[in-house]
Description:
Elements: H1 3-15, H2 18-25, H3 29-43, E1 48-51, E2 54-57, H4 59-86, E3 92-98, H5 99-104, H6 106-116, E4 121-127, H7 129-137, E5 143-147, E6 155-170, H8 183-187, E7 192-194, H9 199-210, E8 219-221, H10 224-232, E9 236-240, H11 245-249, E10 253-255, E11 263-272, H12 279-289
Parallel strand pairs: 3-4, 3-5, 7-8
Antiparallel strand pairs: 1-2, 5-11, 6-9, 6-10, 6-11
Amino acid sequence: MNLHHLRVFHAAAEAGGITAGAGRLNISQPAASREIRALEDRLGLALLDRSTRGLTLTEAGRLLFDAACRIFALEAGVEGQLRDMAGLHGGTLVLGASNTIGNHVLPPLLARFASLYPGIEITLLVSNSEEVAERLEDGVLHLGFVEGPADLDRFDAHAIGQDHIVAVATAGHPLTLETTVTAATLCHRVMVAREKGSGTRAIIDQAHAQAGLDFHPHITVSTAQALKNLLLAGGVAWVPRLSVLTELADGRLVELPVADLTIARTLSLITRRGRSLSPAARSFAALATA
């Protein structure tokens, strides 16, 4: 069905006459009559009964007019939503982030973005870097935030900062009394670490392998909070410094002086290669990379 024909019919039926309907659309009365006749010919049904007293909708005309009202109301609604999206007055933004970034880097950015664009509904999904990449690839997320190297065959990556992975122990642990600790010593003393698939775990494994060391923690956990709680109970672990700033500052945890192994990583914003970003995603990406 030709949408323009339908629009002319709808205008004429709503206005109560072809001339009045044509005026609403800024077209001539003969042109409007031709459009409506073409629609009737296309459908094989009379839609209007014409008389000197004006127009009357046939049964088919009433059915089509009701449908046209719903169609054009939906069109107007969608057009309004799209205008809101383009102007950042509405829409949604779904972000995925690794634990370190989601818990320690994004909160102030999210608060600022929400104050700038209160009409946008924001969702943040926090998991490990591997799951973030999978969700982004599947189209669940608009933007992803991961730790360490990104798969550049699938994603475009933009650095948003850097973090160091440091060895820490509970205050009072014997290792905190040492002036120097070797990475080899820690290989036998580290109690807890994040799970495989975590960006933190990947960079720790890689650093140890490059140093010719085997990294085998006694306990593996899937959340940063569980790791921190085990640490505070008396453990030793390699952790993102960003995740323990408060505990280091108040003395509950102590950074160990490891002289022969430095672990640093880039924190990245990733987007699907070759895919366009929504206005909200584009604006948040600009804020995150500024």
